[in-house]
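Bumping my old thread because nobody answered last time. Still need a sequence for this structure:
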């Protein structure tokens, strides 16, 4: 077993910002419809950080070395005035990579304004091309057409585009090769994510996880792939490229079969202003109270730094040890 982490070895470089805990999908691996139904208590509006509060928080993280800002949720495109928030984040001093993760349904409508506001990249979640499989997985019977139109609109708008696919055994393994063809045709990166035991509601079982190694083998039976050079520190995906089209990559995020906690440099800010230093942290750290109590920028940055340097998270490394734990829902904390 690996020794506990010396937390100071892991710099803070990446911030995920959840801008809403609501969503227009009910993917069963994230927001099962039977739990997130009409009676579910989403965050009340006054609890949700305003654009200004989010930008101030991001600025504090940025002053500590954060280089990547990713807007997520819930479904971030459900948030009103998202382009205004993007514009505010793009004005934070420093060279940030500014991205969004979305289910893509509303992307066709917003791609141009997001690009104009200063967004660099978009990751679109797309688990299947088959109408039947996709509509079942998203829990609301939506067809993949709008998502595909969203991908195409983002490409036309000049945004960098990636596609994320969560693979579940017995559910969408047969979609892996068609999705790889789809991404290759469009020249976009595709990333396969192992199904994770996030939250407390998705009924995760280890035997539903398709290890990335199995997917790679399947993909190699169809495509000529080679490992991409120069893995980057803190990068969560293992990357491969098509030999005859090296600009197109396929990545694997293998948090279950190959944990990467030792390189984890990512913090998360929930829509109600809680900082989570791990996707599986039992509790967050309240930044909202400080934001709303007149704290200075320096005080905000000190608090973030204090929280980060006390962190010893390594859940994916110790998952197999089991034990009861209350974990934040992915739709609340942001993926
Ligand atoms: N609604 C947006 C979307 O789906 O892209 C953004 C939020 S969603 C929580 C962010 C990412 O988390 C998505 O790519 C989604 O597929 C992934 N995700 C959600 N639940 C997951 C799980 N249990 N295991 C692995 N990935 C998951
Ligand atoms: Fe919504 Fe994204 Fe979760 Fe699916 S993965 S339910 S689209 S937040
Ligand atoms: Fe980071 Fe926690 Fe995931 Fe490990 S389990 S990679 S510490 S978020």
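Sorry it took so long. Here it is:
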């Amino acid at each position: 077993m690996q020794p506990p982490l010396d937390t100071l070895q892991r710099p803070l470089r990446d911030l995920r910002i959840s801008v809403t805990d609501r969503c227009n999908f009910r993917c069963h691996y994230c927001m099962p419809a039977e739990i997130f139904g009409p009676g579910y208590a989403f965050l009340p509006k006054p609890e949700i950080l305003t654009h200004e509060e989010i930008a101030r928080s991001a600025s504090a993280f940025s002053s500590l070395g954060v280089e990547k800002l990713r807007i997520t949720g819930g479904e971030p495109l459900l948030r009103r005035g998202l382009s205004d928030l993007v514009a505010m984040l793009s004005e934070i001093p420093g060279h940030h990579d500014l991205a969004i993760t979305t289910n893509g349904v509303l992307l066709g409508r917003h791609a141009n304004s997001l690009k104009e506001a200063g967004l660099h990249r978009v990751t679109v979640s797309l688990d299947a091309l088959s109408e039947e499989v996709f509509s079942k997985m998203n829990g609301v019977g939506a067809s993949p057409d709008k998502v595909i139109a969203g991908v195409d609109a983002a490409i036309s708008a000049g945004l960098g585009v990636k596609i994320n696919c969560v693979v579940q055994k017995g559910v969408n393994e047969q979609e892996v090769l068609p999705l790889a063809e789809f991404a290759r045709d469009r020249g976009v990166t595709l990333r396969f994510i192992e199904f994770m035991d996030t939250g407390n509601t998705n009924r995760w079982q280890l035997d539903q996880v398709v290890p990335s190694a199995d997917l790679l083998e399947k993909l190699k039976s169809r495509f000529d792939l080679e490992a991409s050079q120069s893995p980057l520190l803190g990068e969560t995906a293992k990357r491969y490229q098509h030999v005859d089209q090296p600009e197109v990559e396929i990545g694997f995020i293998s948090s279950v079969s190959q944990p990467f906690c030792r390189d984890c440099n990512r913090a998360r800010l929930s829509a109600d202003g809680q900082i989570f230093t791990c996707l599986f942290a039992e509790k967050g750290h309240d930044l909202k109270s400080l934001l709303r109590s007149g704290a200075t920028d320096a005080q905000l940055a000190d608090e973030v730094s204090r929280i980060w340097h006390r962190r010893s998270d390594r859940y994916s490394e110790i998952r197999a040890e089991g034990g009861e734990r209350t974990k934040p829902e992915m739709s609340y904390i942001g993926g």
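The pocket of S-adenosylmethionine (ligand 1) is lined by residues 23, 29-30, 72-73, 75, 101-103, 125, 164, 166, 193, 195-196, 198, 202, 330-331, 335 (CB under 6 Å). Let me know if any region looks off to you.
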